[in-house]
Amino acid sequence: MATGRTHRPATRSRGIPEATVARLPLYLRALTALSERSVPTVSSEELAAAAGVNSAKLRKDFSYLGSYGTRGVGYDVEYLVYQISRELGLTQDWPVVIVGIGNLGAALAGYGGFASRGFRVAALIDADPAMTGKPVAGIPVQHSDDLEKIINEDGVSIGVIATPAGVAQQVCDRLVAAGVTSILNFAPTVLSVPDGVDVRKVDLSIELQILAFHEQRKAGEETSAEEGPDAGAEPEAAAVAPPAPRGATGSTGRKGPDGDVPAVMPA
Amino acid sequence: MATGRTHRPATRSRGIPEATVARLPLYLRALTALSERSVPTVSSEELAAAAGVNSAKLRKDFSYLGSYGTRGVGYDVEYLVYQISRELGLTQDWPVVIVGIGNLGAALAGYGGFASRGFRVAALIDADPAMTGKPVAGIPVQHSDDLEKIINEDGVSIGVIATPAGVAQQVCDRLVAAGVTSILNFAPTVLSVPDGVDVRKVDLSIELQILAFHEQRKAGEETSAEEGPDAGAEPEAAAVAPPAPRGATGSTGRKGPDGDVPAVMPA
DNA sequence: CCATCTTTGTGCACGCGTTCACAAAGACAT
DNA sequence: ATGTCTTTGTGAACGCGTGCACAAAGATGG
Fold first, then answer.
1. Which domains does chain B have, with CATH numbers?
2. Given pLDDT bands bounded at 50, 70 and 90, which one contains residue A114?
3. For B131, how many CA atoms within 13 A lie in the half-sphere containing its CB?
C-alpha cells in the first residue's frame, strides 16, 4: 500500500516532465499579466525574467508543448495563454470542495485565485453542526454527512482538506471513496491513498522549518567567516544537552560527519 | 539581479542535500508522534512508512546527518528527534512577523504549527489603520509604518508575506532592507530578492493547476484506453476556438507534438 | 533577392536525487 | 564465545532536470 506520493512513477504524462508542469502555471500567470497590458508578443528572455526562471529552461519547457513561438520575434501572448491553459486543463470547469471550514478553510473559500482559473468552489463542508447553513464567503456551509451526495451530484474530482490533522485521513478516505481523485492537503499529515489518486501537500510548518535550516546555516557562516572549504560551523545551540541513545549498551562513540558531540550520556 | 529562487546554487549547505533538508521536517513529525506514544526505537522501515517515503531514502538522508541508529535495532526516537531538531535549527527561538492580516494572515496567525516548533509570532503587521490595535489570535495588529522598528527590536529574520499580490514586492523590499533574510511568500507573485535572502513560495493556485493537469490526463486516458505508445488523447476541450498567433504573416502551419490545431486564424 | 540580425528550438554534458543491493555491524540466543 | 538474524549504512547505477551553446528559422532592411 503506497502511503503518500502517488504521482506517475516515470510515466511522464504525454511526455511533459513533472518539473515543467509545475512551472506552467507560473508562465501562465506572467502571460496573463502581459495580456492584460495588451502586450502582443514576448521573447523567452522577457517572459523568463517575469516568471523568475532561466530563459533556456523556459524555451525547453515550451518545446514540450509544441513549436509555438516565432524565431526572431518571440511568442504570441494570447496564443500561448490559450495553449498553456488548454494543456493544464483550465479550459474546462473544475468543481472543488473544501472540507474543514476553520480559519484556514474560510480563508481558502474566500481566495480569489480559485474562481479566476476555472476552479469553482462547489461546496464548503464541515463536521460541526453549528456551522451548517452559515454562509462563508457567500457560500453556505454544508454538513459532512452529505459529503458523498455533494460530490456525486456535482461531479467533483478535486477536494481540498483543511481539517485538523487528526481527521484528515478519514476525510481523505471518504473523499476518495466518493470519487475524488485529486486532493490538496493542508493538514499536517501524510495521507495514504490508493493508486490513481494524486495528493499534493501544502505544509506551512515544513516550509518554515526549511527556512530555519538555511537561516541557521547563514548565521553560522557569518561567525566563522572563512576557515576551510568544508568547516561546517557548528552552531552554538549545543548548549542544550542532547538526550543519549536509549538502548545503547556499548560505548560506541557517536561520530557526526564533521566531528559531532561524542555521546557523553548523562543518564 | 536574480529574480526568484535564491537557494545556494550548488553549495550544498554543509553537505546536506536540499532534498534531504526538505524531508527532515517530515521525519521529525513522525518521530514526535512516536515519542508521544513513548515508543523507544523505530526501524527505518517503520519510520519510512510513517513519513510516506522509501526506507532506503530515509536511511541515506540520515546518513548525511551522521551515524545515528543501531544495526539490528533501529533508531532511538528521542535521540533522533533531538538531532534533527538541532540540524534544522529548531533548538533556538525564531521570531516571525506576518505581514498582511487578511483572511489568510489571520488564519496563519492562529495556526498552531507555529508555536509548536520554536517559531514565535513576534508581530502581526497590516497597512490598514483600521486594523491597528485590533487583536488577532490574541496578538494586537501593528501598523506597517512600524515594520522596520519591530524587526530591529525583535531581531526578526523570518517574514511571512500574506498581502495582496500588488504590494508583495514592496513589502518584501522593506522586510529585506530591515534585515529579514528568509521569506515565506503566500502572495501569487514572483519576488525579487538580493543574494543571501531565501524565499519559499506557497501558492494555492499553482497547486490546483497542477492537480487539474493530472486530473485532465486521467480523464483523457480513461476514454481512449489504449491506442499506441504516444497517442496522447486530445481532450474534448478543443470546442473552444483557440486564438491565432497575432503577428503571423505567413501561413506556417502550427504543429503541436501530436498534430495540433492548424492555426486557422479568424481575424 | 540577398544579407544581416534576432530569437527560437535543441543536442549535449553535467550534477543531483533516487533506488537497488549488499557488506558490515551489532543484538540476541545458545 | 560463537553463530544466527536483523537492520543499518553506503557504493554504484540510473534517470531526471538544468544550463550551455549553437545551428536553424524567420523577420527586417537595403
1. 13-88 (1.10.10.10), 94-205 (3.40.50.720)
2. confident
3. 19
